[in-house]
Write a structure and sequence with these properties.
By secondary structure, the chain is α/β, with parallel strands linked by helices. The strands form 2 sheets. It has a 9-stranded mixed β-sheet with strand order 13-12-11-10-6-9-8-7-14. A 5-stranded parallel β-sheet has the order 2-1-3-4-5, with helices on both faces. A hairpin with a 2-residue loop joins strand 10 and strand 11. Helix 4 runs parallel beside helix 5, helix 5 packs antiparallel against helix 12 and helix 6 packs across helix 8.
Length: 400
Amino acid sequence: MGPFRDVPNLRTPPLGRRLRLGFVGGGRGGNVGYWHYNGVRLSGHWDVVAGALSRDPDTASQSAADWCIAEDRSYLSFEDMAEAEAARDDGIEAVSICTPNFTHFPIANAFLDRGIDVILDKPMTTAVEDAEMLVAKARDLGLILAVTYPYGHHAMAMQAAQLIEEGAIGTISQVIVEYVQDWATAPDEQSEMASNWRRDPAKVGRTSAVGDIGTHALQMLRAVTKLEAEEIRADLHVCGAPKALDDTAFIKLKLSNGAPGLIWITEAAPGNHCGLRFRVFGDKGGLSWDQEFPEQLKLSPLNEPDRIYLRGQGAGMSPAAERWTHLPRGHGEALTDAWSNLYAEIGTAIAARRAGEHERLTSCHYPSGVDGLIGVRFMNACADSGDNGSSWVKVDNSGV
């Protein structure tokens, strides 16, 4: 395996080789798997060598061929994959799970039981108890449990976090985060039946939009401000075509420093696509960023001209944010690069764990199982609030 070593950039594997990764889900017909796969490849840290990519034999076989996975390592069930890969000398070292929410717990549980590090799509589970069990199991086994919230791995999101930490806007006094889309405005088309599980309470839990994009908004708030939502008050709505669960939510927050916050999410605002945005204000200024224009960050010091930071090296970029930039200014980087940064950080953490480099492991920056657990608690707290007349509900932000 070789010793863990210093490397010149984030996309260089620190063990001198790529880690072996398997996928559950993500085959043909699913966008999410390809987002993961492209980030994995661009990160430079992984070889995708195995997969249970679909329950349909033809789709599984075709998807494995697309990803150059050997025929004998293309499985029809995650159970078979976990058992077979754990028995191989060259078995996978981590698994990425890109399946519907209700399947996350049994799949992750099976791979953790076999000593394989787990990378889970969000939300981590539908039930708080399941999320707590996974976090406890990973901790007790000494394994990595990561959750794929990629947006916070844009370089300018990290730049915002560093500016706040350095006091550029002073003490935070209010935070607004929004994630605005329009795909759920019209009735679901038959051609989109593959994603209609997002409307089924048995498969997504007690919320739809809050679990789907609201957890992204919360994680962005937490990553940038380092504050927690200690209490929430949620109004859940259906603003698009009739459906069983929410497509819109207005969520008031009481943050851990006493400041107020607001999260607005919707999948039913025509003309909006992937509008994850934050505005953070303090007693010395404000910061704003838009995921659809990810290379620019605006700092507005009180009573001074605005300052626009552009993604790249130098010119006011913090070292932590520079680490997440790979091309000079003027050569665009976007969401695929954020995915690659996320998978590179997770790869570095798993390499450090395997090499016994505890200090390196703790310095890696990625959403952990505890972050995923907080997201599950948050979406269930929103459901509790909605069920009780939009009352204030406390959110547990601890580990297990």
